[in-house]
């Protein structure tokens, strides 16, 4: 489900109209998050740490309305829920796209996500013809690098999909930290909203048992 936002009463109308004309209207933030508890919870279940982090990020992103908003035909559309599309590496070093829906429990998602990844590996081509990507949150991972910044490819004209990238875990004072990058269209999203995402991510990551 989705709804069209009324620009006449939209509090960020001037911000939207200002930034939407930019050739590169994106804003991005990278910060380290504590995934100690999250990784331990995944391992106790024999599950994938990546899928545990994906579920947490998708759940956190969907809790922030601005991260569910998209620009469609010069209108602002807010979706009730946004699925994710993440990369799955193939044996030859290339990758395919895998879509998931995080509206499951943590335990259910670890099983469901693995099944979706195996299905994706059977396909050929990165993006399937006819796929509507408007509502998707794009997720990727660079598990070889504990990066401090990420620059992501974007289309012309600019889109409004949120992009999230995970990096390599590293140890600090006995905790496992991970760089997490968020990129969004500034016409819809401010630093406040990205900050809310990070706060929610950490709350969820710490609460999984």
In percent terms, what proportion of residues is strand? 25-35%
Rg to the nearest angstrom?
A: 17 Å
Helix proportion range: 25-40%
Order of helices and strands: EHEHHEEEEHEEEEH
CATH architecture: 2-Layer Sandwich
Helix and strand content put the structural class at alpha+beta
* Overall average pLDDT: 95
State the domain count.
Answer: 1
The CATH first-level class comes to: Alpha Beta
CATH superfamily: Chloramphenicol acetyltransferase-like domain
CATH topology: Chloramphenicol Acetyltransferase
Total of helices: 5
- Kindly, what is the distance between the CA atoms of the first and last residues, rounded to a whole number of angstroms? 31 Å
Q: Main sheet? A: 7 strands, mixed
Coarse morphology? globular
How many strand elements? 10
Low-confidence stretches: none
Structure description:
The chain is α+β, with helices and mostly antiparallel strands. It has a single domain (25-207), classed as Chloramphenicol Acetyltransferase. Helix content is 30%, strand content 27%. The strands form two sheets. Strands 2, 5, 6, 7, 8, 9 and 10 form a seven-stranded mixed sheet that branches. Strand 9 (170-172) and strand 10 form a beta hairpin. The longest helix has 17 residues, at 191-207. The protein is globular.
């Amino acid at each position: 489900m989705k709804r069209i936002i009324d620009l006449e009463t939209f509090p960020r109308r001037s911000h939207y109209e200002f930034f939407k004309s930019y050739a590169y209207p994106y804003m991005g933030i990278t910060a380290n998050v504590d995934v100690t508890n999250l990784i331990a919870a995944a391992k106790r279940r024999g599950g994938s740490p990546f899928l545990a982090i994906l579920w947490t990020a998708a759940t956190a992103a969907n809790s922030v309305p601005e991260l569910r908003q998209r620009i469609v035909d010069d209108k602002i559309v807010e979706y009730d829920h946004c699925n994710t599309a993440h990369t799955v590496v193939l044996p030859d070093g290339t990758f395919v796209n895998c879509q998931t829906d995080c509206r499951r429990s943590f335990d259910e998602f670890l099983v469901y996500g693995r099944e979706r990844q195996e299905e994706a590996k059977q396909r050929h081509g990165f993006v399937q013809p006819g796929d509507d990507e408007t509502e998707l949150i794009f997720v990727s991972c660079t598990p070889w690098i504990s990066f401090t910044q990420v620059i992501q490819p974007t289309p012309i004209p600019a889109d409004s999909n949120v992009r999230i990238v995970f990096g390599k875990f590293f140890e600090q004072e006995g905790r496992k930290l991970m760089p997490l990058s968020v990129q969004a269209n500034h016409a819809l999203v401010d630093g406040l909203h990205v900050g809310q995402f990070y706060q929610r991510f950490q709350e969820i990551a710490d609460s999984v048992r």
